[in-house]
Description:
The protein is mainly α. The protein is elongated and about 125 Å long.
Amino acid sequence: MSSREVSFSTQLRRAGVVDSTRAEQLIEQIADVAGIRFIDPAVSLSFYADPDVGLLQLLRLCESARDAGVLEPLRAIIDTPAGRRLGVVLGGSVALGDFLVRHPELVRDFSSWPEDEPLDEVDVRARLLEAVGADPAAMAPVATLAGDEGITAMRVAYRRQLLRVAATDLVQSDPIGLMPTVGAALADLAGAALEAGLALARAAEPDHALTRLAIIGMGKCGARELNYVSDVDVIYVAEPAEGADDQAALRVATRMAAAAARACDRFAAEPPLWQVDANLRPEGKDGALVRPLASHLAYYERWAQSWEFQALLKARPIAGDPEIGDRYVEMLQPLVWSASAREGFVEAAQAMRRRVEQHVPAHEADRQIKLGPGGLRDVEFTIQLLQLVHGRADETLRARSTLTALAALRAGGYVGRPEAAAMDRAYRQLRVWEHRLQLRKLSRTHLMPAEEEDRRILARASGFATVEYMEEVWHDIRRRVRAMHLEMFYRPILPVVARLSTGEARLDSTAARDRLAAVGFQDADAALRHIVALTRGVSRSAAIRQQLLPAMIGWFAEGPEPDAGLLAFRQLSEQLSDQQWFLKLLRDSGAAAERLARLLSTSGYVTRALLSSGEQVRWLGTNEDLKPRTYERLWTEADAILRRSDDAEQAITAMRGLRRRENARVAAADTLGMINASAAAGAVTDTADMLIEGALRIATSLVRDEIGEEPPELLVVAMGRYGGREMGYLSDADVQFVFEGGGDKATAHAQRLATVLRGLLQKVGAQPPLEIDADLRPEGRNGPLARSFDSTVGYYARWSDPWEAQALLRARPCAGDPELRARFVAAVEPVRYPERLTEDALAQMRRLKARMESERLPRGVDPRRHLKLGPGGLSDVEWSVQLLQLQHAHRVVGLRTTETRAALDVAEAEGLLDVEDASTLREAWTLATDLRGAIALRGRQGDADVLPVDARELKVLAEIMDTEETGPELDDRYARAARRARAVCERVFFGWDEGRR
């Protein structure tokens, strides 16, 4: 083989030819048969999706043209723009190539089409009617051709126009840009075919003048976004002509409708076009094929299911009597746009999408362009549901076309700009792939090819350089579309808005005021002013708030203080007015808007936290973001703050801000029922540990600079509820300071270090302080703020009272040198876990407890409502458990814990408490802890240790605690739990006989 031949063969392969030897033979045969010689075959073939098939089809066309005596038009267009259009058709569609082989004279069309004439400006209706000898200007055109002759003429005319659409589409360098125009042209062509079919039906029906029949296009045909090969969904509607009998007219219309469909889909000399599907009509296959207007209206008003209104969204007259068609659409539009108010409409639409997915064969799911996850249906169902829910109040959304509706949703703020752009491009690309696959054999398919050669042809046909790149885009589109579908289609706001009246959804002033008052707003006029302020203007933000507020009003109303919640939302919205993420999150998130409304109308504590830092609203979008952070994670961030900053004020402010932020996260999760009060207490304790450890590092640096030498090692020991990891949101930190080392001035330096540390934590500033209470140190307020290690250990060994040994049960080093922490724990163990609790010590403990109950309760407070000091409250449980620890922890290692619940569990397991008593104490302690946490979250003025009397406020606490109780039921539950716990305390702690007070 010569070098020139090798070079030509290589060029052909580079142009996409698979079998270059056969291709060269075909080129020679084309030259022999038709005298056609390409100027540069490799360049010409590079535009063919399948050059091997294209060359074979061209040879067949040449032979057919030769036999028909029409070779000259074919020769004339080779190596011209018209020839390029012919080539892309032959290489892109075997079926259209076969059509040309059957009708070679139609090659002339390729040179007669004006290159710059838009597809949608061609009057295809007129051309198909003329093909069957009907007058396009007539109100009811009647064909002069009949039978198979008329059907063949219509189908040939249809495919001539289809050739033009396909050639324009395939030669296009930007197929996704042209895709909507192609879909519209195909829909118009389908309507024209049915119009011609009706003209043929009239020619065969002597009584056609008795009826006025309209054909309504549904689905993609109605939306003018049809595929090359797709069922054409239709509904038939007919009215009698003036003076005609109703039943006779209906019988004629039924025969004509069936005949028009057969003209398109029955087998004949020229192959069928596509299936005409009338199963979307009332009652489906079991219903009458043709109904009058009144019958359609009666059905949709009384019997139609939700999905049928979704189908009607795209209804459009496509053939027949235009007045009847327009009356049909106009008559049903109000029902379509009010359908979303039907009970369970949104849920039914979501269930239908799930059913469609479930019916996709498993072996096809990853290749389904239409029905699979991330496919066309995900886009279409998402857009249609958003349209139907919001379009009731917003008429700008009432569009048939998917992309037009998507643009309207974007303009109205219902879909974000990036998401709309991504969905638009994905939809266009998916449709281009679908079109290219269907064009090849004019077959109805929606599957990505399984075979490598078929994927190669598809890649070339749709403008991709390689199969690998096409598949990468395919997988990326599926992933992105699926994510957007799940985010938008299952928005919690949709069923809420769907249930509202049109006036409520539009926030009409009268309807909104009435609804505000009805759902529980105390000042409906003030609430309406907030709504007006939030939705005033034509900005995108105002539009999004217009969507959100109808649903959020209901969510605010579910909280105890909807007025306060709405006011806080307005304040937060104004604060974050320039933050695009805020409204986007509320609109698109599955839970953020509802969670925010619940928090703002329920918890004053969380509301203040969110208003102090609106960025925290971001957490509400996912459960993961609301999970309390572990101490290790907190300390990693704190350590980074300390390493970055040399400025003590800046560092401690950042550390306190970190604690405020994390306490807000915990409080939000607690209010929303994602964690219980015990878990919240542990998380709040972690934030205090982190802050104190960080503040100790800062204080040590400051004192070092101040005294010119290394200060003593300072150990911070958590005491009380802080030591037990049971802190509340409003708790002080009970601590004592222990130091070691530092030379002659160690005491003075340690005192200074403790003072500086406390000052850093308590100083009023930009971030909330942490109050330090050191009254539980040796000698209490009379003792030194910081005490040496040896002095502390010596004091507890020689001088401490029994109550101080009891206090040590909760001593937990929380900051300072790890070795010093361990030594401290070991040193105080003999004191807090004595081998024997003396009778004197026990008697002193009991006297102290009794005195506390009589002296420390606030004046005017019913003792039974005091959660901490009242009978059966936290103190009763904790002192009972602590007594067991003092009595038994020297031999029961499990009791050596600072945490009440943990010690109680061990006491039960070891038989120190019977199961019933342990359960009683556990229930009372947990309930009191939960109530204290809920009261703190409410953030209202008053003592967080006192159970409210107001039944409504008790109901709010029950909701925060995630129980279904009424206020009185919660009150009764606490009273019973406390009464039983007190009885156990009297026996276990006070040693009273059962039944005696």
